[in-house]
Amino acid sequence: MTFPRRALQSLLVVLSLQLLAGCEDPPPRPSSDAGVPDAGPYVWDGTYTELEEHGDWIDKGPFAPCGFDAQDASTTACEELPRFDVSRCDPAALAALPQEGIYQANTRDAKPLADGGTLISIGSVGFQLRSDGGPNTMYDEPLLQRDTQGGRFSVVGKNTRTSLTIAMVGCQTPAPDIITGCFASCRRGKLTQQGTFEAHRVARWAGEPESSGGLTLLSERHVALGQPVDVFVTKGHAYVVSLPHAGRDGGLTVFDVSDPSNPLFKTSISLPEDNFWNGVWAHRDALYVASSIMGTLVYDISTPAEPTFVRNLPTGTFGAHTVLVDGERLYAMVPNTGTFVYDVSQPLNPVQRARITVPGDPDSGGPHDTFAYGNRLYVSNAFGPYTVLDVTDLDDVRPLGQYPRPDLAYSHHSAVGTFAGRTLAFEGGEFNSSHLRVLDVTDPARIVKLGEFRMRSITSIHNLILRGTRLYVAWYHEGLRVLDVSNPTKPTQVAHYNTFRESDPYRGDSLFEGVYGVRVPGDGHVYSVDSSRGLLIFNEL
After folding, report:
1. CB neighbours (10 Å) of residue 517?
2. Which of 70, 185, 333, 451 gives 438 a disulfide partner, CB atoms 3.0 to 4.6 angstroms apart?
3. Which of 212-216, 271-275, 443-447 has the lowest mean pLDDT?
4. What is d(CA 141, CA 158) in angstroms, rounded to the nearest whole number?
5. Of 497, 521, 502, 496, nearest to 132 (Cα)?
6. pTM: predicted TM-score of the whole model, two decimal places
7. Per-residue pLDDT tens over the stretch 151-188
């Protein structure tokens, strides 16, 4: 998840790019967890064709044949719906739309440049329409306006945290549960963007069943604390951490999963002034929790059902966002600050050894997450480049190479393994249009893209786990996706489970909804957490 979540969830993300003119060998030790039929066994010979990097967003031009009159930029411009030209739209199709649903939309704004090119700005916005008398929302706040009957489709919402108002007027329905149209956005009374949008009703994808490939839901347990975002499984127990959400404090929830088909709630922990807990990991009798306030929290789980607070490891203003353990090292990633490294040979008494910073733009946001493999650390450096470091000697950490992103896309999480003698990184971003990249990082000085896998452009990828030639991906609204990466040049989906349901309690319109975390601890089961449904346990494929 991104940092700091409270700020970024409320942001209309704009990723700008200038357009001129116009997945053999079994992996080494599991150092860290840091819709096509199964094609069958495949042995990759290590050859590939280098792929050009085009970024997360693939521009296909305007979404709809409508427009917005931006000549008079009055303070109420985004609430004046007659400004939209819908003369070439399809009111009959709009009239047939269901009067409910949770939608995610991509917005596209095109501005001419002095050199004759075009600047394309892409954003994301979600909204929810209710037919049961419940609140209609945008940014999880009540809509200012809604008119979705009689061939008209318009919604106007405001994010009070950022003073951003957006008007969206529908024009066409190119496919079931997809709406295209025009939008205008204003901030503090000033028109900031106007262009077209494409909105998908995220719970529905034509022709796709609830699950496939034999991925079976064995059990489900609600998490009462906040919004569950990560899970770690050890000692026959699942430790779920949550963020504050919808008036509920976050914290830690513990389940006995010795019988995965019947998890038993054991306890929950929430601190009144510190419960924005985003990451969790365990090492022998210690549980490490990433806290946005107190840094890394250390709990004693020698009695697994009863975690006991031991101490916290301060990390400064931003607190810790994610954590991982590799061997006898604990890594804590801190936004805008760096990666804190601790010796955990005595798990309940970590000793700080280093603070690692990544070379590059200091405004990139710092490390979001890392993956440790061999003597190298693979850093997902937020809005900066994906970076490989030699951490053999913590007193002499050496940068080995970087993979830049051309469109300011957000680097979120990765998993690294060995295939046909080559070291490959499966790297995922975050925010709309983010997708899976397969990178050859054998020579970090020249990282090469050799494969990719995409879902719908209106959704976001999140965390992923590599187990042999199976990649388990927590893909927010898209649920849990399992990819066969035996041929890493062509990752192939072999199983999925759609967890997102509009009827789930506390289900909102955020881009960050659905499956957040996944773990595959090697006990024959897959553990994931959904932002509304809580702990979900599946069979391992």
Report:
1. 26
2. 451
3. 271-275
4. 7
5. 502
6. 0.91
7. 999 999 999 999 999 999 999 999 989 999 999 999 98
